[in-house]
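Hi V.,

Quick status before I head out on leave. The structure for the redesign project is tokenized and pasted below; the design run finished overnight.
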């Protein structure tokens, strides 16, 4: 694996590996398609020509609300081959949660799964019009959401048959050019679009490949969504770099996990949030070590089950720490003892990491808990800011360090330990949920005057949080009807589990909600819990 960062672009990587590995299989999908290294390069060239025919030019955005399908990967590489920017979107977003991303990124072209088109219902058109909508894996409907008025509508198959223009538009980007915009959940405002250079995307894969010793014989089982940095950078791009093989399924299922791992011959996989615990809690089969896995990258892990997980499946658990903005900055090393919460050793050739006092930014000694701050050593190996949010970029980069908003500490060996989140962001089922965005939906309800949304720990949340809505009502509203309202307007994972009614919400002198007392109160006898009434939310 070359460490010459001058060729750290996804376009160069795809072309280089096509030359090196040709017709060797690179990736397969649950839906059926398989791509060799050569096909990834050739097919993405073809799609790039067609996107150019739709008018996509360097610097413009191509949005994708697409599940784990081959079209996602091909469209991303094709977009980058035009010097344009790929914008992968969480496939559970809809309504108000999707409108901000549409208006902020102002895409020239939108790719969307046919079954996800209704997510755009109610999204108001912005100042920038969409030129074309490409429908993936389905039929183009006769009537499209208003946000697509005036846009050309065509299927992905029709896209592939468009006549290319005389100007193919294919380019060779530089490592510092922007490859993607990934949206990370806002905590005190709208979601932020992270500007991710090619070198950032490359390093996200290279760090994994080097740390766990990936090679051409490895197979990565990917059961996380490709719109997440974990699946896209840490798993897919690391496989591309190492010359191995990947298998992608549509979604994670703890009960199918081991069967799918065995079926594809996986040697590596990742498990985020509650996933590893859900896998461990699934019924044992008696011969669970009968698999090819050697490593599971899992965050977080708990002392109560981590060692037993390793023994049951015959694997080694690796941990790490990172964020979409700053990349993965630390990993455990082979042979390190398994310590829950220990992210491992800093990748010191790529990053500087400090623990600082969250109020003063003064460095703290080893062993003391403070905020994790990071800065890069490789040009382009870090985010280039938040798209169209200069104030938020400056805030995150105060004193020339990127502030993670996470609490951690360094031990005497220089290993990084993650302790907890500082920012007001709810972590549920592996997703970061913006309390601000949930509150906006609740506050638009005609019977709610204001609300505060918090995360609360419960015994069955696997160390993560459940969403609690604390509401001030203007009139009577049935809790079940309130959740029905939420289901139509927000992602499934963001719908509150708990509802509490109060007469008023405490605020600071400047009008900000004071939530700590609500968190301290947690779940009480007066808290309504949807689980107790059997309220279920259908999965798309």
């Amino acid at each position: 694996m070359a460490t010459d960062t001058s060729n750290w672009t996804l376009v160069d990587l795809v072309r280089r590996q096509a030359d090196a590995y040709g017709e060797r299989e690179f990736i397969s999908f649950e839906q059926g398609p398989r791509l060799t290294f050569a096909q990834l390069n050739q097919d993405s060239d073809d799609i790039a020509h067609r996107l150019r025919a739709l008018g996509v030019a360097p610097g413009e955005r191509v949005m994708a609300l697409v599940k784990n399908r081959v079209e996602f990967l091909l469209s991303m590489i094709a977009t980058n081959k035009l010097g344009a920017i790929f914008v992968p979107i969480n496939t559970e977003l809809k309504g108000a949660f999707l409108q901000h991303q549409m208006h902020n990124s102002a895409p020239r072209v939108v790719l969307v799964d046919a079954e996800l088109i209704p997510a755009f219902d109610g999204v108001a058109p912005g100042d920038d019009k969409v030129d074309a909508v490409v429908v993936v894996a389905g039929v183009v409907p006769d009537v499209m959401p208003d946000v697509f008025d005036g846009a050309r509508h065509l299927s992905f198959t029709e896209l592939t048959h468009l006549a290319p223009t005389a100007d193919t538009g294919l380019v060779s980007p530089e490592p510092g050019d922007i490859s993607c915009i990934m949206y990370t959940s806002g905590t005190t405002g709208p979601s932020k679009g992270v500007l991710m250079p090619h070198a950032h995307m490359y390093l996200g894969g290279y760090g994994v490949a080097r740390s766990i010793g990936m090679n051409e014989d490895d197979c990565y089982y990917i059961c996380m969504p490709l719109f997440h940095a974990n699946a896209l950078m840490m798993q897919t791009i690391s496989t591309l770099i190492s010359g191995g093989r990947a298998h992608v399924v549509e979604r994670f299922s703890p009960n199918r996990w081991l069967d799918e791992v065995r079926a594809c011959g996986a040697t590596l996989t990742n498990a985020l949030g509650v996933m590893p615990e859900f896998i461990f809690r699934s019924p044992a089969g008696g011969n669970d070590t009968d698999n090819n896995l050697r490593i599971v990258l899992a965050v977080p892990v708990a002392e109560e089950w981590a060692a037993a997980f390793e023994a049951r499946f015959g694997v080694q658990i690796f941990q790490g720490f990172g964020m979409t903005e700053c990349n993965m900055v630390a990993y455990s090393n082979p042979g390190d003892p398994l310590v829950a919460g220990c992210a491992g050793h800093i990748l010191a050739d790529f990053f500087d990491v400090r623990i600082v006092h969250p109020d003063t930014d003064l460095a703290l000694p080893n062993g003391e808990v403070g905020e994790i701050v990071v800065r890069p050593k490789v040009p382009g190996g870090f985010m280039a800011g938040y798209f169209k949010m200069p104030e938020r970029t400056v805030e995150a980069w105060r004193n020339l360090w990127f502030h993670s908003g996470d609490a951690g500490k360094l031990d005497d060996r220089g290993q990084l330990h993650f302790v907890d989140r500082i920012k007001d962001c709810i972590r549920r089922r592996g997703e970061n949920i913006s309390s601000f965005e949930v509150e906006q939906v609740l506050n638009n309800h005609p019977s709610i005057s204001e609300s505060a949304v918090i995360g609360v720990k419960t015994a069955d949340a696997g160390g993560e949080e459940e969403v609690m809505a604390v509401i001030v009502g203007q009139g009577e509203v049935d809790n079940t009807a309130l959740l029905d309202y939420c289901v139509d307007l927000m992602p499934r994972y963001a719908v509150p589990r708990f509802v509490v009614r109060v007469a008023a919400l405490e605020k600071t002198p400047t009008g900000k909600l004071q939530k700590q007392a609500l968190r301290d109160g947690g779940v009480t006898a007066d808290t309504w819990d949807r689980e107790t009434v059997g309220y279920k939310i259908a999965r798309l």
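Above is the designed sequence. The first helix runs from residue 10 to 21.

G. will cover questions while I'm gone.

Best,
W.
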